[in-house]
Amino acid sequence: MKEFCHCLEKGTDALGLNVSPGQTGLLAAHARELLHWNAKMNLTAITDIRLMAYKHFVDALAAAGFLDRPARIMDIGSGAGFPAVPMKVICPDLDVTMVDAVRKKVSFLNHVVRTLKLDNISALHARVEDLARSPEHFQMYDAVTARGFADLGKLAKLACPMLRPHGRIYALKGAHALEEITPELEAQFHIIHKPYCLPFVDAQRVVVILETR
Predict the structure, then answer these.
(1) Which of 28, 139, 149, 152 fits 77 for a cystine, CB–CB 3.0-4.6 Å?
(2) DSSP-assigned letters across all residues of 112-134
(3) Which of 73, 121, 90 has the alpha carbon at shortest distance from 26?
């Protein structure tokens, strides 16, 4: 995983992010398990270790810089663990619940959590709509995160029941995310957008933050 670590360090240095050697080791372990499991099931289409470092890991770490902390977070559609696992590694004070409707992905996520020996992070096999009816989850989170999960309108509808008053949604999006902001969303939320560029792969990204009014 030497090349992965090299690319991760280059990417985080370019963005001015502080990642310790111990954290780099944990992220490399996540990447190693992802490559291993991906050979048996479809967790990511990105299998080039260099692109994986930049497009999955550096992207998640960049977005972590916009989070309010400490916080209890629900990550919707966690898939292979992005952005939730790298966020937890770089922000260990977060309390994270990952949610995915695909059982094999949840199995992978819980395996990664055990392998990395992370505390206060777990994965649930569930549909977000169903969790809204559970007192364990309804209005119990300071923030909801999601990367490439749905358009902003659908994400907001799913995430709002999870949020405490004045909670925030952090949507990790591509360059055209602002086209998804509707007058209805602007009436319901205070909206902030934070653009950034992923280094070395020339990819434009934006975190759209929706805070309930």
Answers:
(1) 149
(2) HHHHHT-SSEEEEES-HHHHTT-
(3) 90
Residue-wise pLDDT tens digits, 103-115: 999 999 999 999 9
* 205 within 8 A of 174, measured Cβ to Cβ: yes
Q: Which residue has the tokens 């933050």?
A: 209
Q: Return the domain boundaries, the chain.
A: 2-212
Closest CA to 205 of 63, 31, 15, 16: 63
Block residue for tokens 């289409």: 45
Kindly give, in sequence order, each residue whose CB lies less than 8 Å from that of residue 167, ignoring residues fewer than 6 positions away: 141, 142, 143, 144, 211, 212
Quote the tokens at residue 91. Answer: 């922000």
Please determine, for residue 32, whether its predicted confidence score (pLDDT) is greater than 90.
Answer: yes
Give the per-residue pLDDT at 69.
81
CA 5 – CA 21 distance, rounded (Å)? 9
Give per-residue pLDDT as tens, 174-207: 989 999 999 999 999 999 999 999 999 989 999 9
The pLDDT value recorded for residue 169 is 97
Q: Is the peptide bond before 161 cis (omega within 30 degrees of 0)?
A: no
CATH number of 2-212: 3.40.50.150
